[in-house]
TrEMBL record:
Alphabetical list of InterPro entries matching this protein: AB_hydrolase_fold, LYPA1-2/EST-like, PLipase/COase/thioEstase
Domain of life, per lineage: Bacteria
Family: Belongs to the AB hydrolase superfamily. AB hydrolase 2 family.
Keyword Hydrolase: yes
PANTHER family assigned to the protein according to its UniProt record, in alphabetical order: LYSOPHOSPHOLIPASE-LIKE PROTEIN 1 (PTHR10655:SF17), LYSOPHOSPHOLIPASE-RELATED (PTHR10655)
SUPFAM superfamilies for this protein: alpha/beta-Hydrolases
Keywords: Hydrolase
Protein name: Prolyl oligopeptidase family serine peptidase
Organism, as annotated: Acidisoma cellulosilyticum
Pfam families associated with the record: Abhydrolase_2
Phospholipase/carboxylesterase/thioesterase domain mapped to chain residues: 16-209
């Protein structure tokens, strides 16, 4: 099992962190690509520590040299549902361990964390977060897919609020995957909001960040 590390931000207010927000990057990126989201999101959680771990493996879609900085949670050479389900299952223990160890290292209460992910990182956040025995306060999934949905009814361990954000011009991960995720979450009685952004491609824009900031503020309100 890989031991994850990555860049951090905060707490913006200074002092010891009271909450943890883990940001999971997409295929071929690394934690440095998404930690810049943290200053904006910290408007909702000035006492939170934001961490963007580098995924455990070099990206197998680029050269070995580029793979030093291009990471993957699991291979996406095969986009079949079975292959992606196997991939996310193999990667989940590393993310679970990272969450548990980071919470413990900073003496943050086990329930005071949230997951944010983009693309493959959103796949990881949705899959892992819904199966945690101690639920995250929120899951923010940008341009992602809810993988292995047929097993969710048997495996779901918690029902945290989920924000799904997707551009309707995404030509990498179709917006239909977020629409399907919304249907599945509804059937499993998971509270969710779905934001479809007209004209947005495979990206996170200011409107998506604003929606995420609001979702985090609501999730941690009162504690």
């Amino acid at each position: 099992m890989a031991h994850l590390t990555g860049p951090t931000f905060g707490p913006a207010a200074g002092g010891a962190p009271r909450q943890l927000v883990v940001i999971c990057h997409g295929l071929g990126a690394n934690g440095d690509n998404l930690i810049p989201l943290a200053p904006a999101l910290s408007a909702a959680l000035p006492h939170a520590l934001f961490v963007a771990p580098h995924a455990p493996d070099p990206c197998d879609l680029v050269s070995p040299e580029d793979g030093l900085h291009a990471r993957q949670w699991f291979s996406l050479r095969d986009w079949s549902p079975a292959a992606m389900a196997a991939g996310v299952r193999s990667a989940r223990p590393s993310l679970d361990r990272f969450l548990d160890e980071t919470l413990a290292a900073h003496a943050i209460p086990d329930s005071d964390y949230a997951l944010v992910g983009f693309s493959q990182g959103a796949m990881m956040s949705l899959f892992t977060g819904l199966r945690r025995s101690i639920p995250p306060r929120a899951i923010l999934a940008y341009a992602g897919i809810l993988l292995d949905p047929d097993k969710l009814a048997d495996e779901i361990a918690c029902r945290p609020p989920v924000l799904l954000v997707h551009g309707d011009a995404d030509n990498v991960v179709s917006v239909e995957f977020s629409r399907m995720a919304a249907d599945i979450l509804k059937r499993q009685q998971v509270p969710f909001d779905l934001l479809i952004e007209p004209g947005l491609g495979h990206a996170i824009d200011a409107a998506g960040v604003a929606a995420g900031t609001q979702a985090l503020a609501q999730a941690f309100a009162g504690g």
